[in-house]
Amino acid sequence: MKTEKNIDDISSIENQSQGDGYDTFSRPIVTTNRLMIGGVFLILAGILAISGGALIFTLNASDPSLVTTIQTLEQMGGLTHQQALEQAQAGFAICGVTEFILAIFTILGGIVALKRKMKTIALIGGILGVFSIGPIFFISSILSLVGLIFIVTSKNEFQ
Fold this sequence. Notes:
Distance between the termini: 42 Å
Structural class: mainly alpha
Shape: elongated
Helix content: over 70%
Order of helices and strands: HHHHHH
Oligomer: single chain
C-alpha cells in the first residue's frame, strides 16, 4: 500500500519535529520587487547627486548672479572682495565634493540592494542619500527617501 507508507512517513516527520520544538521544514523566503525598486531609486538618486555635486563644484564665485552672496560675506566676515571670492569658491568646492561622496555611497547602497546582499550597506546608502541635494530641488533626497522606504519594508529579503 503506497498510500499508507506516505502517510506513515509524514506522521513520523511530524513526530520528529514536535519532539525537539523546532520545525524541520523551513518556509521559503518570499521575494517581491520592492527591494529592486528601492535599489533602482537609490541608483537614480546617486546619479542625480553626482550631477548636482558637479554643478556645485564648478560654480564660479565671480558669477554676477552670486553678487549678493559675495557682498554678504564681505559685510559679515569683514573680508575684502578677493577674500570673499576665495571663501565662496572654497565653500562651493567643499559642498561639491561632499555631494559626490554622498552620491557614491547612495549608488553603492542601490547596487547591494539589487544584489540582495549586505542589508546594512543598503540602509546606510539610503540614509546618506537623503542628505544629498541633486541638481533639481532636492529630487535626489526624495528619491533616496522613497528607495529607503522600499528597502526597509523588504529587509527580510536580503540573503
